[in-house]
Write the structure tokens for this entry.
Amino acid sequence: MATVPVFAAAQPSQNSLMKEIQKFEKEYGGHLGVMAKNLRTGEEVRYNAEERFPTASVIKFPVMVAYYQAVSEGRLDPQQRITLTASDKKPSLLQQLGDGLTMTIQDAVRLMIVLSDNTATNLVLDRLADTHAARLQTVNDLMMRLGLKNTRLLNRFYTWDTKQPTPEGIRYGPGVSTPEDMAFLMEGLYRKTLINEKASKAMTEILKAQFYEDMIPRLLPAQECERLSVAHKTGFVQESKVDVGLILSDRADIAMAVFVDKHPDHAEGISNTGFLLAAFVSRAIWNHFTGMTGYTPGRVNTAHVDWNIIPGGKWGIWRSPAAPFPHPERANGFTRSDGTRYPYFPHYADSSLVVFVPEKLQPSDNGVNLIVHFHGHMNDNMGVLENYRIPQSLVAERTNAILVLPQGPYRAREEFCGKMEDPGGLERMVKDVLATMKKEEVIKEAKLDGLILSAHSGGYRPVAFCLDRGGLNAHITDLFLFDAFYGNHDFYRAWLLGGTGSIHAAYTDHLAEEHTSFAAGLDSQAATRFRITHTPVEHEQVVQEFLRPWLGQLPETWKITP
């Protein structure tokens, strides 16, 4: 006789949701059980919620609860050290490591949850009581006291000699539970009543670090939320796929348990249709509780900064809507007068900003100093980072500033600088840099103090337009031009004559006329602030040759105090 899904008195508003869940179950295969609760409104979604399912590794969550219970009672010390032996090793990460490795029991708990390490699970379980039977009973009795009616740990992981030939042991493997039980346990975690508030907070943080994200979190639209995190535990083996957790967001807080059993797709990897079933059902429930629609996971979080630690500081990269590109004038690419064609992708599609932050950056009450460097032809900001030793020069001269490397035309032979030619373009980009650095806790206040604009080769043009219409001239103290004075001289002249800032320019033979004729046309006061040096070094070596000496000449406000 066919199993009939149990809807458990679905509310009228849930009718379409239940049809959607059934549709996904039919489309992706397997037998599904779901329990979800909107923890702010109390509304529940149930689909076979009281039916028992194999837990796979999800039973490790109750083991963690039992561990924290033992800690709260003083029966276990989280800093107790464990020595890994050959006999401990089961299929897991720890199986690959050498005998004699030591760790704390707290470390083992994290490995048990975050990486679902089977060896670590057994190491934790073995310290809950003196015998195998007593260890199982410790977990199972606690679950009963907490109100879970159908949750049982049935064996150690990958330990066949302790496996019992009971109906449960044969049918369910290491553990059995119901969607209802697991959602109930998650609600206790959310209410901070699971063991106690301290333990609940600690367990939530561990669950948030879960490595496997193929089910509940997979299709959630994180980038359309101000705040969204998932504290969860997964489990999958053979035909069982399980994920239970808390969805914590500005739109809704949800306790959710999704169990998939008897699923015919045995393939490993994210394309497994059992994983997809769990992911689509999770998103359907999210949509129901939040009023959202669709099943796309949302845009890539391009505003996320990827940090990399290097000697003397760290550099990061993210994508900014205020970066020079994309720009409408290059939406269809660009063709040079010589016929060279640069299509939109990849030459004008890159909106990345790279920053370097010195290790001991010292913003003042007035704000933080920035150095914005524009690269030249046939280059990109990562190429600048690699080849011109700019961060190294800042470190060597104790320069108290954040370096910003915007992406200009990507490896193209042209000067157009996109949004830097729009009124206020520089100011918008700098505001995004400051806001991002505040969000990343690099600075406390998104305030600009001093600003240096720097250019190599074709980077002269963005500097010129930033001077003419960028909106931040009151902050610009110096210009660094590395063989980069090809044109737009009227913009440079107006800036030099209209303020007190200085231009430092080094040039090779081919730009001698541009520099000397410009200098000859300046009055005596401005001429002292147009500091030019002829150099015999190669064009590609000018930055390396002159940047550090120029940084060394900056005033003390641009120096990090030792």
